[in-house]
Amino acid sequence: MTTPATTDVRLPVVTWVRIYIRLFAVQGAWNYETLLGNGIAFCMEPALRLLPGGRGGEAYTSALSRHARYFNSHPYFAGVAVGALARAELEGVAPGMIERFRIALGGPLGSVGDRLVWASWLPLCSLIALTAFGLDARPPLVVAIFLLLYNLGHLSLRAWGLRVGFEKGLRVADALGHPLLRRAPQYVGAAASFLAGVAIPLVAHRVAGGGKMLAAAITLFAIVGGILLARFAEHSEGWRLALAILALFVLYSVLR
Amino acid sequence: MSVMDVVPIVLLAALLGLDVVTFPQAMISRPIVAATAAGAFLDNAFAGLMIGSVLELIALGMLPFGASKYPEWGSASVVGGALFAGQHGSPPGALAVCVLAALMTAVVSGWSMVKLRRINAFRATRLRSELDAGSSDAIVGLQLFGLTADFVRGGLVALAAMLIFRWLVPTIVAVWAAGAVYSQAIVVAIAAVVAAGAVWKIFHSIPRAALYFLAGLAVSMSLLVAR
């Protein structure tokens, strides 16, 4: 099934660094035809130079052509795919097997990343920064808290993904079942729920001014409105509602 | 705000618009960062942070899943932050009008992102034979085109928004009839409703999420009373 050329493939440090830097631009040519496909080939390219024949060789060009096709994943988890696929190519795994592996890998990398990053880590970091703002933190501190905290997770995740992808190769699915990846969204979600309760009234108080009673009234309004929005407008997006109501409010305040 | 003030704002918007999807997705494009940075460019970081916090509440529920279409907050928050920071003394209505301007910019910018993705798809299709032949030049070229075009896209959207809203915002604020506290309260109440709804949508499946939220409310209310 597989025909490994070598069993102990290694990447030079400079290749690791090149791939890691390229991972930040993995969505540079994101499009509705190949999604992340071109970006995956772009990130893998430094590793493929190590194939027999080197840059421009037959193994190099056929590997690049395989990876510039359709692929989908969460961008922060793309390193897992890049690492695993680079290892498979350098081990000389059969192209058909690599193709099947690519197809199978995309879905899990997308769903794990979406749950862990977009629906957990990002809202948590936003709420922490909003809480800091509500507690009278100065602008540089609020921005620093958000960026340092968020990117501690972001940069680590990209580095971990690339490392574990290359270490595990075609067995990388085991790593995606790591308890931390499975349980983290739940713990982060609990913390974010708590922080939402802290942040919303504090931000309301700091932005609106006008005393504690006004902040309490806004909070009560937000809870009732939020529940109604979530229950009766489940499929609508909050920003659309905000845009419509704000436009009406501006019109009213100007024309009255 | 002079034309010379607009140039660095447009460049900042182009750079932070790039961060949303293409490079490096470090979330420097989040409203709380982008609007504060724009405010800092105009020596009023606090105004930028204030509108950035309101926009952050509204953006909380926007999860950039894969191919979904969403507002582009990076360039829009820079525009919102710059407009609000340029309203000296935060006159009544300024926050409401600037948040509205930022939201409208975010919608247009999101639409332009969809157009750019279609252009990228068109180029990828046109380069198909070279990509199938494993041309690294075609792969790198496609990537660099996408990055450059996204930078230009964010800059053009911000330029257009600044040219329109730079005179529209003061014009509307000048005839604003509602009181200052009332105006600010309405804006933050709308943002708070959207944020509360977003938190419920995202985290309602977490066991005891409502209890955690209520515990957080108790803490914030205690802090407000204690002040």
What labels would you give this structure?
heterodimer, A: 256 residues, 10 helices, B: 227 residues, mainly alpha, 9 helices, globular
Could you characterize the architecture of this molecule?
The complex is a heterodimer of chains A (256) and B (227). Chain A is mainly α and 256 residues long. Chain A has a domain at 13-178. Helix content of chain A is 74%, strand content 0%. In chain A, helix 2 packs antiparallel against helix 3 and helix 4 runs parallel beside helix 6 (139-168). The termini of chain A are far apart. Mean pLDDT of chain A is 93; it is low at 1-6. Chain B is mainly α. Chain B has one domain. Chain B is globular. Chains A and B meet through helix 2, helix 3, helix 5, helix 6 and helix 8 of A and helix 2, helix 3, helix 5, helix 7 and helix 8 of B.
Number of domains of chain B: 1
Residue windows where pLDDT falls under 50 for at least 5 positions of chain A: 1-6
The chain-level mean pLDDT of chain B equals 95
Note the total helix count of chain A: 10
Helix content of chain B: over 70%
Strand content of chain B: under 5%
Helical percent range of chain A? Answer: over 70%
**How many strands, which pairing sense, and closed or not: the largest β-sheet of chain B?**
none
Q: Would you count the extended β strands of chain B for me?
A: 0
**Rg of chain B (CA only):** 20 Å
Distance between the termini of chain B: 37 Å
Shape of chain A: elongated
Instruction: Please tally the β strands of chain A and state the result.
Output: 0
**Largest interface chains and counts:** A-B, 107 and 116 residues
What about the largest sheet of chain A? none
Order of helices and strands of chain B: HHHHHHHHH
